[in-house]
Design goal:
This protein is of the alpha/beta class. Helix content is 41%, strand content 18%. A five-stranded parallel β-sheet has the order 2-1-3-4-5. The radius of gyration is 24 Å and the shape is globular.
Amino acid sequence: MARPAGCAIPWVLLLCCLGAPLTAEAQQAGKVYRIGVIASTRSVAELSQHAGLAAFAERLRELGWADGRNVVIERRTSEGKTERFAPLVGEFVTLGVDAIVLVSQAGAVAAHKVTATTPIVTVTSGRLVEDGLAISLARPGGNVTGQTLFAEAREAGKRLQLLK
């Protein structure tokens, strides 16, 4: 007996539907990014209460990044000791973090000396250009970026222009 021409299509669909869960299960979950955060606070608990880092974490959440799900935030503190920044940055480089966030100018300088490849983000930094962390504020170059508390004369003029 001859089968109707369209009869094979439902079997193909059924096999695809049964095989789909196996294929989906075999797919790996998306990459989990690691961000290293270092501040000069005395404890990690104190670091968690830092206003700049709280805003950073809140913005990550707004953008869909959930700590422990698609991003892991490693937190360290220099305990107020400048000499601890370089070893902590070295630890993060060894861990293979995707970016390092620093809440200290001294930390940014130390990080810049330790790694030229891992992206470094400064939250509250001083003079990025003067300390050799950036070529200019408009085009930082290298692996350091972030905000600065001080602006070059032309940037200050631009801020005033934007304000007006």
